[in-house]
Amino acid sequence: MLKKIIIIAIVFILGSQSIYFKRLSDLNKEENSFKVDSETIEKIYREGIIESELIIPVDQLINDVNLNTELTFKDFGNRMGIGESAYFLVNETSNITIIEDGQITLESGTVVDAKYIFGNELRDASRFLSLEDFSSQSDLNALTEAFNKYVRNQINNNDLKVGETISYIGACRVDKRELPIRSVVVIPAKIVIQ
Question: What is the CATH architecture assignment of 18-193?
């Protein structure tokens, strides 16, 4: 009997040391402690994308990825994690052939998806950030959300018409498992009517 009481006491002591309680409101305050400042967002947009030296014409990207995948991924691609895909900054000037539900199909075959700007394409292609820059996934997500909102405010695709010529800068994802590629889907950072 004494043995059972000692075992129960040990289990109770060990169990009480491994469990702690925290108010949910305190946890929410900690998770939302990361503040995204507009200067960082603008710097990523301007220096990391619009003025980047790593922007490659989309036709050159397609050609280079199909001919020398590893070198093109190394020189122009970026990814924040592991995997077979990378993100590239691209540009192009081409005529609009179809505009449907926010997707702009160009004469070149490129699709510029300007309806919803979300995801990681632009953030990752910028090479401006690394996972080590963030103490938590929620901080990284907060920055990505604010950055995508900023980019959405830069894009005005309401005035575009079939037949017009546009120039764009944006980002696309290329997966090595999908080679050879013939066209890409681009998330735009900037669209200009020519």
Answer: Beta Barrel (2.40)
